[in-house]
Structure to design on (373 residues):
């Protein structure tokens, strides 16, 4: 197995933490990064918010001094604004790597022509990639995408070829369409087809990687150059220790007892409080992680509820102290995490599917400056 080469960057092991909104902030990246090497991408931010120096956005792109390389994912729909954002990152040394999001399937993004809807507009995609690469200087620019909008509107092979032609350093493919959202099974065969079609740059696979065994199987079956891990690490930052060991040929896997899980939960919440500068904010933000950390363990409903509604670190720690520290790692705890239901349809701008080569840029409301990301 070789290192992942992104321009001048060399990443080992070839594992990438997928940017997840509200999840992959600096504290969570720290927890994952301490387990093993790889590339750890911050949560998605909008190019417009960055260019306009939105205060919330700048808080989202904080990096620990030990975090190298620093990786930012951008979401944008306007080639000019994307170019300005990438130039800003390069000129002001805000990061060492830029990833572009063309995979987000949520309605508030696709209905404005962004995320997984955008690659359908081939010329618009090309213009965005061209401006990003042109303004990046020495920084590598990569992109993450889905197979397409639905099975009748697949775009990943065209997008892969455009990416190569415009100088993108690597492509990550989530093996689902936008309409699938996170439902059903990821199509790893699509990853293999993209790898066969795109030989000039690394191709990374994403989707249904719940364990180190899944990651190794994906690389073996598809020939992809690396793996992007998203929902599989929710409540399981130690997955990156498993992945690092597997890439080195090791067979040992981390199976923490509930006491170690509780200690990780405590540290996660504490890091959030240090990052946010507000204990109530941090504990409230941590609530969504409780169910992921405790998946499969035998924990009473009352205690689960109290942990998930804690207001202070003291409240949280009191509940964690009531967990049975000796309870072993449960069988079957490696499965899906997070929402997984498919959608009935993809919300798109009016007439979006009429012309795949239309270069019209979506309106300014596609990047709300109040979102901060």
């Amino acid at each position: 197995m070789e290192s992942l080469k992104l321009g001048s960057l060399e990443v080992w092991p070839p594992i990438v933490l997928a940017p997840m909104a509200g999840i992959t902030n600096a504290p969570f990246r720290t927890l994952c990064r301490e387990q093993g090497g790889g590339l750890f991408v911050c949560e998605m931010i909008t190019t417009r918010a960055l260019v306009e120096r939105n205060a919330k956005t700048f808080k989202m792109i904080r990096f620990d001094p030990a975090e190298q390389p620093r990786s930012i994912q951008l979401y944008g729909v306007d080639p000019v604004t994307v170019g300005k954002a990438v130039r800003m990152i390069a000129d002001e040394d805000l990061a060492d790597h830029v990833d572009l999001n063309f995979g987000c399937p949520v309605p508030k993004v696709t209905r404005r022509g962004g995320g997984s809807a955008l690659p359908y507009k081939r010329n618009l995609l090309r213009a965005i990639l061209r401006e990003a690469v042109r303004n990046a200087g020495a920084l590598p620019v990569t992109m993450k995408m889905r197979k397409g909008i639905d099975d009748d509107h697949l775009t990943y092979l065209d997008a892969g070829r455009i990416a190569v032609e415009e100088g993108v350093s690597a492509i990550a493919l989530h093996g689902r369409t936008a309409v699938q959202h996170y439902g059903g099974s990821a199509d790893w065969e699509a990853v293999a087809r993209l790898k066969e079609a795109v030989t000039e740059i690394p191709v990374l696979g994403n989707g249904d990687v719940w364990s180190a065994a899944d990651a190794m199987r994906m690389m073996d079956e598809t020939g992809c150059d690396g793996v992007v891990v998203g929902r599989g690490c929710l409540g399981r930052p130690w997955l990156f220790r498993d992945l690092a060991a597997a890439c080195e040929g090791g067979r040992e896997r981390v199976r923490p007892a509930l006491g170690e899980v509780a200690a990780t939960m405590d540290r996660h919440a504490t890091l959030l409080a240090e990052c946010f500068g507000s204990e109530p904010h941090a504990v409230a933000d941590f609530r969504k992680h409780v169910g992921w950390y405790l998946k499969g363990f035998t924990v009473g409903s009352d205690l689960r509820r109290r942990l998930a509604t804690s207001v202070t670190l003291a409240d949280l720690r009191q509940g964690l102290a009531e967990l049975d520290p000796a309870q072993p790692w449960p069988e079957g705890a490696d499965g899906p995490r997070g929402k997984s239901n498919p959608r009935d349809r993809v919300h798109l701008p009016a007439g979006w599917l009429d012309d795949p080569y239309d270069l019209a840029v979506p309106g300014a409301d596609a990047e709300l400056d109040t979102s901060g990301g």
In short: Confidence is low (pLDDT under 50) at residues 369-373.
